[in-house]
Amino acid sequence: MMRRRTTLLTGCTALALALGATACSGGGPVSAGGGDKALNGQTVTVAGVWSGSEQKNFQKVLDAFTEKTGARTRFVSTGDNVSTVVGSKIEGGNAPDVVMVPQVGVLQQFAENGWLKPLSGTTRKAVDANYATVWKDYGSVDGTLYGLYFKAAHKSTVWYSPEALDTAGVEPPKSYDEMLKAGRTVSDSGLAAFSVAGQDGWTLTDWFENVYLSQAGPEKYDALAAHELKWTDGSVVDALTTLGELFGDKRLLEGGSKGALNTDFPGSVEKVFGPEPEAGMVYEGDFVAGVAKDQFGRKIGEDANFFPFPPVDGGKAPVVSGGDAAVVLKDGKNTDAGMALLEYLATPEAAAVWAEAGGFLSPNKKVDPAAYGDDVTRTTAESLIAAGDSVRFDMSDQAPAAFGGTKGAGEWKILQDFLRDPSDPKGTAAQLEAAAAKAYKG
User: Fold this and answer.
1) Would residue 6 count as lying in a domain?
2) Positive or negative torsion for Cα 128, 133, 134, 137
3) Rounded to 5 degrees, what are φ and ψ at 180?
4) pTM exceeds 0.70
5) Average pLDDT for runs of 10 along the chain of length 442
6) Record keywords: Transport included (predicted)?
């Protein structure tokens, strides 16, 4: 679901790969073999959730690592259930060397199981120098850095059809209330305001997290993410009430709640940017652009654009993120070469390979913005970097999977029920607390 690939490298990246010299954008010497083929004859096995264009684009990064070091790579797609697949491979004596972990909770689980090697001094120095502290914190367990965040997502972007907003005579809103007002005006002009992917529970958790982070603030967000604050807290009820104002307004939802519950994420993008638009706006992360561009031929920045998720009740505009962290398994057959791969992934030129291909954001501050293929992606990447330590990782990805990441259960199912009938925020909060208490205890 990401942006179309190209076979071009930036001039900076190509030079670095050819010479194995110094990192671009002000980085230090490249540590992954230094371009001297020091890992010839070795193979690094990498496991991750990616498939399709994401896997192909990541393979370009792995190929660049091979060109620099001589090490071959083998990517194994795990599907969504990384924890189960990796656990089975470890038990079977076939552990990969590196895993790209998409959830903070899974990274913590791996560390607590004793599966991970701490990252090398070279990688730690790169993270200290080039990443906001929040990314180091999310990659650490009990003060030890195990995960390098290579790929990030910006989940505080609302995508819209400029034609739809122009027809309705509205501008991108600056507050949540303005967004609902603009949505009603769009609805009056003949299109539904929002296409909501209610069939996928994870999209609803993202809606909640943006509202909650802005309305309740980062301290309560962190406490709720760690279940140090109960879901029955008034701040949760307030956020659900705010979200329910949108979910309960038939003028705002394409197809109403029933239509939303029958729409998956790709379908929600199609309803805004497909050949027969049915709505003017769709909320989700920066990866919406890849679907709009690759599947529906939209020109990003011209007939598909975004505005930041607007602040709620006078709070600050939220910046919710997700991401994939690279970790090295103790039981891998080639952990030294795996650690060298992470040292390479920590460099700006490794990120530039995928940035050029598209469908990618890096949390590395030293990545040259020029590496991104279009102005909208560049703006999104710069917004993520500018947010610094105010970025908050997707809350459901920090939770135990039984609560925050299981289809038909926990937060996903409860928020789908809330989308169906948002009339009882207190009751929904109580259900969320009961599910969270059970999952965190387990």
Assistant:
1) no
2) positive
3) -65, -40
4) yes
5) 30 33 36 64 95 91 96 92 90 96 91 97 98 96 98 97 97 98 97 97 97 98 97 98 96 96 96 97 93 91 95 96 96 96 98 92 96 91 94 93 90 98 98 97 80
6) yes
Q: Domain limits at 327?
A: 11-154+321-392
Whether residue 149 is found in the same domain as residue 238: no
Same structural domain, 21 and 140: yes
The amino acid occupying position 240 is L
The CATH number of residue 64's host domain is: 3.40.190.10
Look at residue 1 and tell me if it is in a domain.
Answer: no
DSSP conformation letters of 131-196: S-HHHHHHTEETTEE--EEEEEEE--EEEE-HHHHHHHT-PPPSSHHHHHHHHHHHHHTTSEEE--
Residues 249 and 181 reside in one and the same domain: yes
Number of domains in the chain: 2
Angle formed at CA 47 by CA 56 and CA 31, multiple of 5 degrees:
80
Give the E-state strand segments of 256-363 in sequence order. 279-283, 305-308, 320-329
